[in-house]
């Protein structure tokens, strides 16, 4: 597409707007792009783009994956543009490209890392062809945001440009089948000791073969629909994995990654399977743009999973862990619940899974609570559960349905006063599981618990 007068007006207006917003100390990561798209609806098609574009999409993990890719690239002195601090819909992507372009609309950098919301695909991919498109996974998410996985995978298949090479989670049968005509490679983790024959989760987004409707047979299930399966009646099956983790050594924090005949050892920065998938995704992507194993591993070792998502700290003899558990997202919450129950020692759990927070205006319904594996919290090692926030009664009902004994549950509308009931006797770890919109609240709860722990007399 050629640049026309309308394009230049949009570009210069957006650039002027960016300067103005920055002077006013306002957020300039969304509105400049929104303005440009309003003035010139096909703006994205007209602006020059970096030579290599890596787009990252998927239900869970896209922000973490983008952050890790960006941090490792920076550590290796790569120059690129990204929408790290911006939005992942069309206006955010447009703002990123405007900031990365000069006044003629020419791109100043050769590489872009873009997080792209799955639902924005129809507004982005007709105008922008990613060199690589990464899909971390596709799970059911908030009904309000994402409807269901078939709807999302159809949107992706219909809009991904033919020239784009896909980097896909091969352990996810929904993700691995998007845009079947495109060139692709798969990453995955070989069978683990912890994998089972049956699914323990409530939510399973693919049960029957999409080709012939026969019931799929799983060789092993890791969680939800993640694992390895085949159709007994036709040729539909999990793909062969190009980047395969063959050995996962959680004790020594190492993993072996096999690609063809090449076997490489990487250091693990987390023992959480979700983060191991994120690491694997990042390694597969960075290998495509030419980083060596040493470059990736040395830089990755310096990374921490960001504090807003996970933090841990020892306060006297008690470990205090905060963990993001996105409300309205049953898979993300279930993964966290599973992590908590398998964490060693006795623990107390505080649940602030508030889908009625002002910033989000609340959920369409509470169905997600019933897709979430609250049953995982019904565990011998979990000695107390405190549930608070606007939706605490919904959570309370759900915990009771999950069979959690009433004397283990404490609850209240006000998050901070509900903590007064926290019992620390015999507890090794206190988990604060919180929503994305409860960051400040999480910090306040954490500070309050720190004081409670420190004021205990019998503690050293
Ligand atoms: Zn079949």
What would you say this structure looks like, in words?
- By secondary structure, the chain is α/β, with parallel strands linked by helices.
- The chain has three domains: 5-186 and 241-301, 3-Layer(aba) Sandwich (UDP-N-acetylmuramoyl-L-alanine:D-glutamate ligase); 191-238, no CATH class; 310-454, Mur ligase, C-terminal domain (Protein-Tyrosine Phosphatase, Chain A, Alpha-Beta Complex), CATH 3.90.190.
- Helices cover 32% and strands 21% of the residues.
- It has 15 helices and 17 strands.
- A nine-stranded mixed sheet has the order 2-3-1-4-5-6-9-10-11, with helices on both faces. Strands 12-13-17-14-15-16 form a six-stranded mixed sheet, sandwiched between helices.
- Helix 13 (392-401) links the parallel strand 15 (382-388) and strand 16.
- Helix 2 packs across helix 5, helix 4 (62-75) crosses helix 9 and helix 4 crosses helix 10.
- The termini are far apart.
- The relative contact order is 0.09.
- The mean pLDDT is 93.
- The structure holds zinc ion (ZN).
- Zinc ion is lined by residues 209, 211-212, 214, 231, 233-234, 236.
